[in-house]
Amino acid sequence: MFTDYYEVLEVSSNANSETIERIFRYFAMRYHPDNRDTGDEARFSEIVEAHNTLRDPAKRAQYDIQYKDHFNLRAKLTEEAGNTRSQEQDSVIQAKVLSLLCVKRRQDVDHPGIGDVELEQMSGCPREHLRFHLWYLKAKGWIGKIENGMFAVTAEGVDRVNSENRREPAPRRLDHTS
Predict the structure, then answer these.
(1) pTM of the model
(2) Section 33-41 average pLDDT
(3) Which of 37, 51, 53, 109 is the most buried (most CB within 10 A)?
């Protein structure tokens, strides 16, 4: 897990060494375990760790590389979270996986499972992304793992597929013959 030391010290990543030292001293006094009113040993340890890294120019330079990588990852997460097309694609993949498992169960009710690799190939979804969709479908109770470790649709999953595929009946035509 990445720890944002700038966040721990509540300073900007552009803060100079004097600012870091001043803020560290303030928090160290406030959270020191000997302080009866505001002492917090866990918070104090975090502050000391952040300070020890950010006060040393070599350690800080090395940390800043990790910080920028983490910051870029957060920016990508933010971008994807705002991308409704990505969410629509998730729904399409989940529906496809659910439908594949439903068809497999219908074709061979005694051997309804499909393995990870086969699902990856059939859905066109890379394994690292497919894991999320399988987790979601399993958490909803729409799929499950069977004895041989393969995935299979549940009765709830069949109901879900059926409810998604229901269409309004076509209007009946009235023939007028007179």
Answers:
(1) 0.55
(2) 94
(3) 51
CA distance 53 to 55: 6
Residue 75 pLDDT > 90, yes or no? no
**Cβ-count burial 109-129 (b if 16+ within 10 Å, e if not):** eeebbbeeeebbeebebeeee
Q: Once rounded to an integer, what is the mean pLDDT over residues 112-126?
A: 89
Would you give the end-to-end CA distance of the chain in angstroms? Answer: 80
- The answer to whether 55 and 20 are in contact (CB under 8 A) is yes
- Predicted confidence (pLDDT) at residue 114 exceeds the cutoff of 60: yes
- Pseudo-torsion of CA 65, 71, 74, 78, nearest 10°? -140
Overall size of the chain counted in residues: 178
pLDDT band at 172 (very low <50, low <70, confident <90, very high): low
CB atoms within 10 A of CB 93: 19
User: Residue 146: which of 103, 120, 109 has the closest Cα?
Assistant: 109
By the 8 A CB rule, do 125 and 133 touch? yes
**170: helix, strand or coil:** coil
pLDDT for 166: 74
CA dist 63 and 3 (Å) reads 10
Which pair of structure tokens corresponds to residue 16?
């100079």
Hey, what amino acid is at 1? M
Distances (CA, A) of 160 to 1, 38, 157: 37, 53, 5
